[in-house]
Amino acid sequence: MALIVQKYGGSSVGTIERIENVARKVIASRDAGNQVVVVVSAMKGETDRLTELARAAAQTDHPRPRELDLLLSTGETVTITLLTMVLERLGASARCYTGAQVGIRTDSAFSKARIQEIDNRFIQGDLDAGRIVVVAGFQGVDERGSITTLGRGGSDTTAVALAAALSADECQIYTDVDGVYTTDPRVVPTARRLDRITFEEMLELASLGSKVLQIRAVEFAGKYHVPLRVLSSFEDGPGTLITMEGADMPQGSMEEPLIAGIAFNRDEAKLTVLGVPDTPGIAAGILGPIAAANIEVDMIVQNISNEGLTDFTFTVHKNDYDRAMDILRKQAESLGALEVFGNKSITKLSLVGVGMRSHAGVASRMFDTLAAEGINIQMISTSEIKISVVVDEKYLELGTRALHRAFELDDEEGNTVTVEGEG
Amino acid sequence: MALIVQKYGGSSVGTIERIENVARKVIASRDAGNQVVVVVSAMKGETDRLTELARAAAQTDHPRPRELDLLLSTGETVTITLLTMVLERLGASARCYTGAQVGIRTDSAFSKARIQEIDNRFIQGDLDAGRIVVVAGFQGVDERGSITTLGRGGSDTTAVALAAALSADECQIYTDVDGVYTTDPRVVPTARRLDRITFEEMLELASLGSKVLQIRAVEFAGKYHVPLRVLSSFEDGPGTLITMEGADMPQGSMEEPLIAGIAFNRDEAKLTVLGVPDTPGIAAGILGPIAAANIEVDMIVQNISNEGLTDFTFTVHKNDYDRAMDILRKQAESLGALEVFGNKSITKLSLVGVGMRSHAGVASRMFDTLAAEGINIQMISTSEIKISVVVDEKYLELGTRALHRAFELDDEEGNTVTVEGEG
Q1: Which of A21, A160, A188, B236 is the most buried (most CB within 10 A)?
Q2: What CATH topology corresponds to A3-175?
Q3: Of A63, A67, A95, the CB nearest to B96
Q4: Per the database record, which ranges form the ACT domain (chains A, B) (predicted)?
């Protein structure tokens, strides 16, 4: 008998009818011989409603975090009771628990608490008694008994943490997409659902803007070796399994693919400091004040020194561009820079795949492909399993589609994906 | 410094604006030098909304009680967080607790749990630190950690129980009326607000249909000698103090009044079994099957035996009348009754007052007054501090007003009360 932890998000439990749909999926999994623990989020819209009430009460966008967390936690508590009632109505034996009741102990960092330990005795007892266990996602309790929340999307983390604590065979995250795709199907209609992907690849794809899963949940799953599967709440299908590299590869399976997917990010802007003296500490001199202003920097490129002067380029979120430019301009004189300029009309394209570790030539094939389309590369940055380039934002679709084809990611049967839902 | 427990019901916290009004009252009490603990209900309409969700999920009017209690408890949890946010915004230091967090331990009788003990350490610590403490009413936690509720209106009970546990100087119940009246001002416009009333009198008035306070809360307050005060959430005023008989009577106060108030109940119906053999066990033979059907019986009158036959009359809630009549008819033969009949067009009028204990003549003055108005008395029942009569329901207003005048309960200044609100 396998132990499965399933997680359903807010839109999957947004109405009583949808909760019934969830209950049927849960019961089907149990009927297939599994023990099932279900983690649910607040009904879609509920967290926003509660947040609005808090804003009205506190008359600020930042109500007191201890009270706000307690308030928001009621959203998931409502869902667990309703799902349990529906499960029982459909003939299943079920029991629900809040985060505090099931012993999800966190630190006291309200609104972004971290799970410290989980007491799995209750759940194991219920599972042994043949019950389906329903747990409120997103919430825990600190050592003083105050209710905490894990931050938006924290229900994924709850599910993975429970799966780890229970040594579950699989943690299934049900969403409004039916898996992880080679790239965004809205940009590349021939994008293909991946049957499996590694944690590292998923992290790179997620951090590059793929919103299927919380990064924290993926990190957590990787750390505790919890097999994670992304599936659709609304259609049947195998989804995408996220596993350790090479783990559980089926007998006779193909060689690991070179590239798992292509991510893009249109939210970045780049800034260049031209002609600064190439002396030790110059990078810190430029980026120190940026970091001090709490602006996150993504790519950093420094060109080779030419006559003792060097050029320095980095990217930030578009929202931070104006602040970053102000800081740079104020510093230009003390840095001895010739010029400071920037560009918000860029996009970042990234190839991600553990396969590129052992394959030469991925970078050159990438550059060739872009060149063949007449796309100029403005920046390049590489890591073990990722190559990112910055190009003019007008090339986002053209570049992504060309790379998708060049690395043979297109759906073999020529199917195209229709995208609906919340995006 | 006095320690005051205040309780505000659902309509008093029905909107953010009303919660602000509550916060100002709480702060005013603190500024007057009191330590204040506030107990609040769910925002008006919230419990109904949650109950509807449960019905839709469970597709029955009786969802599973453990889950229903957990669901309903979220209503009060929302209110405590919002009130605390408002208090802090208005400059007061405050902290809120759910029933479980503050250690309100109950038995496991979901939906009608009884409080077993309260751990007052948290609250006392906060009060000592100068904080206002906000506690969710209506809810507690059983020994297994399941959330329980005390039943509708249980927030009054929470407030009284907290007041007892903290040895509070007064428990103030804020409602949409400004106190306890000599009778319903909608029937008798000259009804007068009572400055004080005894627990016993309040119990008799409450159980007779006066809906100001939960009976359980009054019993609790009486048992633990907690002075209870009923006040208006919406206007200033001293309200009505409910105390032990004779306790704290002000120096030079008037003699205890003969009658505290007049209650009436139009929700009862009477049933009569005529001409049954007057043998031992006949009352049990008639009422046993009624009780077995879970029908509550209020007044019971058996006439004197006449030629070995007796008449037996009792009252039940109008909603139970048809069921009770069915049961009686089926039994009539085995009981040897001559006839079974009933009447739903009745009302019960009751005089209540601890003063009648030591005064003869209350009953005769009551009967004389009704006779003078041509009102026929169908049943009479008496207790130490109460005399009840059943009359035709058309005499409800006439009878109540005549008695109110005869027992000198009219407002001395001839003021009449305007009644608004929920009734």
Answers
A1: A160
A2: Carbamate kinase (3.40.1160)
A3: A67
A4: 271-345, 351-423
